[in-house]
Amino acid sequence: MDCCICTTMPFPLRPPRNTICGACYDGARNIIGLISKPAETDQKGTQDLNCSPFSPPNSCKKLDEVSILMLQMTKTMDEQTEAINFLKGFIAAFSEQIHTDILVKPGNDGPSIPAHKAILATRSEIFKNMLDSDECKTAPNGTITLPELNHEELKCLIEFLYSGSLTLEKLEKHGYSLLLAADKYEIPYLQKLCERHMHKSLSTSNALDFLEISSICSNKELMERSLSFIVKNFHFIAFLPKYDEFVHKNPHLALQVTREFLKSKGKTN
Ligand SMILES: [Zn+2]
């Protein structure tokens, strides 16, 4: 149907303004619904992303008010960018080693990395306890060791603690180690970042790894997603050479996969 909104015709040839196609009608209704809905908070205290966090409840109910809302959002984003730029001073203190007061040592005798106790302690309760403990106070030069990380992984982790961000390249390269570190040292935001990346990148080549790591970290959501993905693609994954290795290493998970697969077959047959 000709539509006065999405038509490509020049203005004089456009259909009358009351002719609107289904897609434009639904889109307009969705936008109004989205901007009029109050920001909801779920049980975990996180904001529902389907709602606009920028507008007060029921403040905007017509499409012509969207531009006002967009301006408010842009202003808020600019202010947040300013705050982020201000906080970037921390990463400069790390990279330029300004007044560092602790050495963090990786496993395998890799070189230590100078850092700031205050940053480590504020980002992780476990680090705080480690730094408070007598063992750390008596360690030479005030050193703490994270034996499960190599030098490169440790540098990534510490950079994250200062900056709160990770490049895609680093997430792809060190995602597993960082998720394990986030779990061990109780760094929920890092955990969330790694999980988001894993959810997005779940594929037949990594689903078994994700299932294994989710089991180690007792990460229920990642486990459910990867398990369901493996079950859906089991006809392919079961014949991958890495599945043999997975079964030997994780017999309990392999058993779970088999049971879920059979359950799914039971549902469809
Ligand atoms: Zn249209």
Automatic annotation (TrEMBL):
Highest taxon of the lineage: Eukaryota
Membrane topology note: Peripheral membrane protein
A GO CC annotation given for this chain: endomembrane system
Coarse class of the protein's main subcellular location: membrane
Span of domain BTB: 100-170
Subcellular location: Endomembrane system
Protein purpose: May act as a substrate-specific adapter of an E3 ubiquitin-protein ligase complex (CUL3-RBX1-BTB) which mediates the ubiquitination and subsequent proteasomal degradation of target proteins.
Protein's name according to its UniProt entry: BTB/POZ domain-containing protein
Source organism: Quillaja saponaria
